Amino acid sequence: MDADTLIHARWIIPVEPAGKRLEHHALAITDGRILALLPSEEARQQIEATEVVELPGHALIPGLVNAHTHTPMTLFRGLADDLPLMEWLQRHIWPAEQQWVSRDFVAAGSRLAMAEMIRGGTTCFNDMYFFPDVTAQVAHQAGLRAAIGMILIDFPSAWASDSDDYLQRGLALHDQYRNDPLVKVIFAPHAPYSVGDEPLKKVRTLAAELELPVHMHVHETRDEVEQGVASHGLRPLARLDRLGLLAPDLVAVHMTQLEEAEIAKVAEASVQVVHCPQSNLKLASGFCPVAKLLEAGVNVALGTDGAASNNDLDMLAEMQSAALLAKGVSGDPAALPAFQALEMATLNGARALGLEDQTGSLLPGKQADLCAIDLGALETQPVYDPVSQIVYAAGREQVTHLWVKGIPLMRERQLLTLDQPRILADADQWRQRLEAGRQADPGGR
Amino acid sequence: MDADTLIHARWIIPVEPAGKRLEHHALAITDGRILALLPSEEARQQIEATEVVELPGHALIPGLVNAHTHTPMTLFRGLADDLPLMEWLQRHIWPAEQQWVSRDFVAAGSRLAMAEMIRGGTTCFNDMYFFPDVTAQVAHQAGLRAAIGMILIDFPSAWASDSDDYLQRGLALHDQYRNDPLVKVIFAPHAPYSVGDEPLKKVRTLAAELELPVHMHVHETRDEVEQGVASHGLRPLARLDRLGLLAPDLVAVHMTQLEEAEIAKVAEASVQVVHCPQSNLKLASGFCPVAKLLEAGVNVALGTDGAASNNDLDMLAEMQSAALLAKGVSGDPAALPAFQALEMATLNGARALGLEDQTGSLLPGKQADLCAIDLGALETQPVYDPVSQIVYAAGREQVTHLWVKGIPLMRERQLLTLDQPRILADADQWRQRLEAGRQADPGGR
Prior knowledge:
homodimer
């Protein structure tokens, strides 16, 4: 049997079938797809590969899926921390966005974010930001798999003037990437409180026609829910239900405020939930009832949120935070065990984005989106269970290799598709501009 | 002016004075002590140093103080996760300890832990485990500053047979290290539920005589408090108060179950509190009310706990977890800001252990216990505020240099006092033994 690439690893965690840990196995790739998983010894005899990769102390897992982020916001990383939410948004983030967000800003911020994500094991991300055309282009250059949001919000920005303009620009972008193997352009109305009924109805109709997910912040904070009740006489989820949006194509992010009946409703409607534990903690947004959602059968994925509210795009850390926080919040140390956290960060993310036939697990036939983690470091020794070490002890620095669609994006921690020195120089230039702007504006921090 | 070492850094965060960020400064060391902090330009003109270290993209901070750990338990890292507390303890940890804990086990486990701590920026740790004499010896070899606990518990172990034996062995160890510049042997009664009144009274008397801290798990879980009430008719804190132990020399670890009156009492008695956020989450022990304790004026330090319940000894991650969790639990995104988390992980830890005249901040005259963190990586760019980047975005892999008492223990991530290949080989050997033992015992997992 011939293969393009044959990867031998100490452990392979295919995620499907659930719970499986393979030892001393190999994964063969042909034409960007997973051809087979088999014991290394057999593979050495049976498979003739163009390239052979040896990972003697590593775990090979599906590439991580960051199911919610705002990539360009890496340029705001640490700009304003430890502030009340409204002060953070109104006095820092929104003014900074109004002043600085442009095609160049988005390009530099997206590149920084994608380099960070590749270095941290992420092969696929779901983005929502202005100038999604620029982020899509950078994703294409980086070679990452991406769901790029057609952002829609009821206020003008440098990207679009009104809701029709947002939609039109979004749909043009969707058209442009219609046949792209890696970039999928999906709907991304910002949040119930920032998008009115009419544009949401259009999204409902178009998403059904085009069979695309609808990526949206939902029930992020108690205030949001209270304001929703005050403005519409309904909790936001109930309003989305009335608009027909509670459906399997809704990717509802945050969901920290959920009553029992809402959990049942979300489960019944097969809504996708994205949990962002570090962002929810940092902004004191509340606790997503992850254990209850999973128990109710809801597909819960994992996201980092943007770097302004996290402050990194580290999915390994996010898995750990999710697994720890679910235990703390539910009072049950057996809640969200390590394997389930890994599943959230891979297969559940793929499912939420409608990509589960392509990525999220190492089933033969799927695209070869892979991440290798070296467990040989002191910090993850000894290894009794590789999954426990990945979720509870491994750091992003232990990610050594990354492939998307069988193409290597990182090898031995060297980025292969992005120009690291340029990314760092750009980030520092933007810092200088922002700091100069802040000094000129006494209203800033 | 002459110095042994002169370190130029992009940023220096001395922790004292509070909030200070110095840019392009240098720190001079003579005879193991901090001689001066001054602008790099001046230092280059005024100071003649034997060794000059250039840290052009780094933040230099006080070495981190891990105020609660069980170093040898690194060998149990990931042995048994995601289990109810009592099943975890009774079916996994205690049997494994009974079967395996020995001088050799403690030596190998301590070495692994200390290598990990050095790589993660920790210069001082507070330990509680069997065979503290072995851990003290390894700390001495590693060159780390350590508070080593005279463990005291009401059941026999391979280390001691009964409470008198524990105390006697502990005091002999204390005697041995009486004049050691780095190792301080302190009291360490395990917990109110595992140590009776009589031994605790002896500790009270001896700690006052010898002027030593008393390191103890207190109010870790709700069950512990309820059992305390059932056994003694008192909540454990009240019992400790009756025994005279609520005093500035008590280092009370965990403290997740605290009523308002107890917070006031703890503040009034100037008890030291050690918060272990990741361990408390993972074991679903409850939430330490850190924001309230700090507001009440309590000195709150930070610890990782042992690697069996964390599962790493990463104080940078622990700072981040503490800062995030305090916001989530208090509902206030301004709670526990980044600088305060750094203070907890440095100065407050030193204070808790009675070492604040020696370590925990970069005041001239203190011992040169230092940690350098390279903020030039993608993951911490751009830098608007180095403290925010350290707490919210930096990873342990960005720690490049470590000094204790002016002596380098790590340089450009190379360990200088410990033998990394040997540590890794030992860890793997212990894994093999434990796994063989587990297969032989069908009662194990």
